[in-house]
Amino acid sequence: MLNSKTQPSSSRQDSLDLACEATSSSSVVPSSNIASHSLGKSRRSAAVFLPGTLCDAQVFAPQIQALCANSINTLVVDFGQANTLQKMLDALELQLKNSGYLHITLVAFSMGAMVAFELLRQSKKYVFSIEQLILISSNALSDSPQKAKMRQQHLAIARNTSIGSLVANTYMPNYLYKQHIGHQHIIVGMAESLGINVFVNQLAVLAQRPDSSAQLKALRMRCCIVAGRQDVLCPVDEQLRMLEAAKLSHQAVELVILEECGHFASLEQAQHINQLLLSRISTQP
User: Fold this and answer.
1) Nearest-angstrom CA–CA distance, 98 and 110
2) 3-state SS of the chain: helix, strand, coil percent to 5?
3) Is there a contact between 29 and 59 (Cβ–Cβ < 8 Å)?
4) So what's the pLDDT on residue 10?
């Protein structure tokens, strides 16, 4: 199994330009350097990324690079120490306000989809508009007592060993379809960079999330649900259920199933995700 030791983030400081020029989906670029690009012709619109549990901008590095190369503005939201969905929304609102983006394509991965659903519940409160929603490796279900108990066991493992060890030895088999060493290092590196306190806070968010099927049924924008065929955490059956719920909204909704792909689709099938985003954002009305 992967050794959980990674290079300290302070030794990985490269220039912002490197984030645009890097081409390998497994290359490591400091997340602080890829969190935001304002390069597009319209400074009012952007692709806004919501990362998953123990993830930062690194999880979207291939997509940021692809969009950057096509002069599309991007923003990866940093949830910081937020321990509720509302606080995560507050972080999103503040970062969007600072960026000036008013029309967004929302790209939400895993836990990020829970934030996206909460945003849909409260969308009338905000001045920005969601032009389209792209959900990657997500589910719309509330938490279960069994999963909540399991997460507390995982937290104990992290405290007794390390957050990197937990991710490398417990989570990794379910994260990737193919155990690519570069992808493993990115995933463990993000977790170690964010640390145990962020993990505790995000576990609280996962435990409190409500069922969001109603938000899918009431969609007011285009939606694309993306899933890995081999994702055991957010299986295809749940994606099909979400698709049927979203179809009730009478909006343009589609489901994309990626073959040979586990939970971290943005890394394992980076080129497919890149092409999907570019095709939808470039043709956005």
Assistant:
1) 25
2) 50, 15, 35
3) no
4) 35
pLDDT 10s digits, 52-68: 999 999 999 999 999 99
Tokens of 197: 């306190």
Which tokens go with 230? Answer: 């081999």
Q: Is residue 168 a contact partner of residue 184, using CB atoms and an 8 Å limit?
A: yes
Task: Say which residues have a Cβ less than 8 Å from residue 245's Cβ, sequence separation at least 6.
Answer: 140, 213, 216, 217
Fold designation for 14-20+31-142+211-282: Rossmann fold (3.40.50)
* Per-domain residue ranges of the chain: 14-20+31-142+211-282
C-alpha dist (Å) from residue 100 to 50, 74, 202, 243, 272: 17, 12, 27, 32, 29
Residue 119 scores a pLDDT above 80:
yes
Q: Which amino acid is at 164?
A: G
Which residue in 215, 217, 230, 220 sits closest to 268, CA to CA? 230
**C-beta separation of 169 from 187 below 8 A:** no
Tens-digit pLDDT profile for residues 242-267: 999 999 987 799 999 999 999 999 99
CA distance 54 to 254: 28
What CA–CA distance (Å, rounded) separates 222 from 96?
Answer: 21
Specify whether the CB–CB gap between 106 and 133 falls below 8 A: yes
CA dihedral sign of residues 177, 208, 31, 190: negative
Mean pLDDT of 110-136: 93
Name the strand (E) or helix (H) holding 43: none
Position 31 scores a pLDDT of: 55
**61-69 vs 270-282: helix axis angle to the nearest 10?**
40
DSSP E strands, 193-252 = 222-228
